[in-house]
Request: fold
Amino acid sequence: METVQLKNDIFLPQLIELVNEGHTVTITARGNSMNPFIRNNRDKLIFSAVTDVRVGDVVLAEISQGTYVCHRVADISNDLITLRGDGNSVGTEQCRLSSVHAILTAVVRGGKTYDISTSKTWKVYSWLWTRLLPLRRYLLAIYRRL
Reply:
């Protein structure tokens, strides 16, 4: 199978269009901002249409014109959403609810698919990780050295 790489400003609007048409879209993870849960070039991410956004969800959002992130929802206040990558100990992004274009529904790793909505392991680890924010800097430093 041939792999094709496209720039985000070309590819992600196409992904969003497919999701809006009712398709699920699978892509290879790129970047390190969601470590340790999602690893660059290792994991496949399955996105679906947004039906409801809750704190803890991992979403694809446009944080400014043409700039997209796949990060976890840290806070929702009215129409304003705060996002933070799991690999970020500081720093957040904000966007409007209408700028959330897709939601991560599953992760494929090593041939096994983890359905994020039903995987108890994924939910427990995610819940713990988000509560460890003050310690995250140190835990990430250790993780990066492994």
